[in-house]
Amino acid sequence: MNDAEVRADPITHTPPPGTVDMRFELAVIPVSDVDRSKAFYAGLGWKLDMDFVRSDGYRVIQFTPPGSPASIVFGSGVASTQPGSVQNLYLVVSDIESARNALLRRGVAVSELFHDAGGVFHHAGSAGRVDGAAPNRRSYGTYASFADPDGNGWLMQEVTVRLPGHGRENDTTFGSPVELAGALRRARAAHEALEKGIGLVDDDWPRWFADYIVLEQAGKPLPVL
């Protein structure tokens, strides 16, 4: 990846005996105006899971982004940190241009696409930021950013091919028809390249497409013809 080499340690999907699953499912963000924040996150198209209000003013609001296993919570009396102090909350998308355009249509101020000069992860703030998508639209390499009304910062990261061991073992899901369409386009392009390379036509392409999509999302070696 650029001048950097990515190394992933071998990962086993079988936990040691006695291991308890720890699923990261919730992030608390500090806001100054609860109703303003509620309107903003509803305007993103996120699902409102809860708006709990108690007589003493304690209030808890929870939203979940489309297709996400994790949610955010904000409200009154739920965060002690400074509003706007939470940064680099990640939203992984399979088609960052479509995701960005969808937010723009909703009136959200979203940055242009960018990538990092280091090629592995992004630097803090805007250091190392390079305009435009990552070279060859490399998976994990392209970002766009936006912020809520308090300045809590979100990053969208495009992931199309998972690193080995970083996918979901037996769970292939898509948050929207746009994401599924992107996976189908990538499968078609890879399939056509393989057919051209061997000079044969694969009549069982639906099965190959299915294998490709499942393996790609799981971060496993992709199929061959």
Fold and architecture overview:
- This protein has about 220 residues and is of the alpha/beta class.
- α3 crosses α4.
- It has helices at about 35-45, 95-105, 175-200, 205-220, and strands at about 25-30, 45-55, 60-65, 70-75, 90-95, 115, 130, 145, 155-160.
- It has a domain at about 25-160: 2,3-Dihydroxybiphenyl 1,2-Dioxygenase, domain 1.
Please render the helix and strand layout as text.
Layout: E1 26-28, H1 34-43, E2 47-53, E3 59-64, E4 71-76, E5 89-93, H2 96-105, E6 114-116, E7 129-131, E8 143-147, E9 153-158, H3 177-198, H4 205-218
Parallel strand pairs: 1-4, 5-9
Antiparallel strand pairs: 2-3, 3-4, 6-7, 8-9
Helix pairs in contact: 3-4
What's this entry about, in short?
With 225 residues, the protein is an alpha/beta fold. Helix content is 25%, strand content 20%.
Relevant terms:
single chain; 225 residues; 2,3-Dihydroxybiphenyl 1,2-Dioxygenase, domain 1; three-stranded mixed β-sheet; alpha/beta
CATH superfamily of the domain at 26-158: 2,3-Dihydroxybiphenyl 1,2-Dioxygenase, domain 1
The main β sheet shows up as: 4 strands, mixed
Radius of gyration of CA atoms, rounded to a whole number: 20 Å
Briefly note the structural class of the backbone. Answer: alpha/beta
- Beta-strand portion reads 15-25%
N-to-C span:
27 Å
The beta-strand count equals 9
Tell me the strand order in the biggest sheet: 1-4-3-2
